[in-house]
TrEMBL record:
Classification via Pfam families: LRR_1 (PF00560), LRRNT_2 (PF08263)
Subcellular location: Cell envelope; Membrane
Protein name: Leucine-rich repeat-containing N-terminal plant-type domain-containing protein
Membrane protein topology class: Single-pass membrane protein
Keywords: Glycoprotein, Leucine-rich repeat, Membrane, Repeat, Signal, Transmembrane, Transmembrane helix
Spans through the membrane: none
Signal peptide: 1-21
Organism, scientific name: Triticum aestivum
Family per similarity comment: Belongs to the polygalacturonase-inhibiting protein family.
SUPFAM superfamilies: L domain-like (SSF52058)
Length: 257
């Protein structure tokens, strides 16, 4: 008997069973690569995966995982690329755990993903440029990891909040010539420089919106850049005076695309 002769309700039921099995397989693959200390004890075949700890299934797609919230569960390990198969996922929150290694490129397949929170882990390597393929993304939190390299410009237009996308290692990915005299000497200097960089990054994104009418006007951008520079130089001058250093502080020119 061919599939065309099957009742529509049976075909639909079979389809749902297949795709839901795919979500369960992806979740189990994720668990296989981590140590959970019992936090994921409910993740077993005796119950449907929609009832597992941290898993939320859709209202209209009851057999598809739409959210995975496992923040603060003391999970240890690497992220399985299988997470990229949870194609209905809208929220992924794995913050405040001990994940390490690279952020899988497969997460770029999550076109419905709106919120991604991987902050306060130990992810390393460069910024995951593949996440720019998550066309529905509005919130991305990657703070307190070990990510390096340049921030991909493709990420800027995807986010409602740039600050949430920047890690605490902003100082490491900036041009080193902006320092007063070598590396920042104290937490106050580091904090002020990072604040300056964040202001410039925000301005850069506001000048690079896809729609011209949404972009900051050139005269306003120039005025804001002058204000950022003046605030930085005022602070730098005070710090130089306090420590008796010589020379003139410099702020590296930022080219906005």
């Amino acid at each position: 008997m061919g599939i065309m002769s099957l009742p529509w309700s049976l075909v639909l039921a079979l389809t749902i069973a297949v795709v839901s099995a795919g979500d369960e397989v992806a979740l189990l693959a994720f668990r296989e690569q981590i140590s959970d200390g019992g936090a994921l004890a409910s993740w077993n075949s005796s119950a449907g995966f929609c009832s597992w700890e941290g898993v939320t299934c859709g209202r209209w797609m009851p057999k598809r995982a739409v959210a995975l919230r496992l923040d603060g569960r003391a999970l240890v390990g690497a992220l399985s690329p299988a997470l990229g198969n949870l194609t209905f996922l809208r929220t992924l929150n794995l913050s405040f755990n001990w994940f390490h290694g690279e952020i899988p490129a497969s997460l770029g397949r999550l076109h419905r993903l709106r919120r991604l929170d991987l902050s306060d882990n130990s992810f390393s390597s460069t910024f995951p440029v593949n996440l720019s393929s998550c066309v529905s993304m509005t919130e991305m939190r990657l703070r307190n990891n070990k990510l390096g390299g340049r921030i991909p410009t493709e990420l800027g237009d995807k986010l409602a909040s740039l600050e949430d996308a920047l890690p605490d290692r902003t100082l490491e990915i900036a041009d080193p010539t902006i320092w007063l005299h070598g590396e920042p000497k104290d937490d106050i200097t580091s904090s002020r420089i990072q604040e300056c960089l964040l202001s410039v990054f925000r301005l850069g994104i506001s000048c690079s919106k896809a729609q011209p009418r949404e972009r900051t006007l050139i005269r306003n951008a120039a005025a804001e850049m002058h204000a950022i520079r003046d605030a930085y130089l005022l602070f730098a001058g005070k710090r130089i005076g306090e420590h008796g250093a010589k020379g003139e502080p410099r702020l590296k020119t930022f080219e906005l695309e």
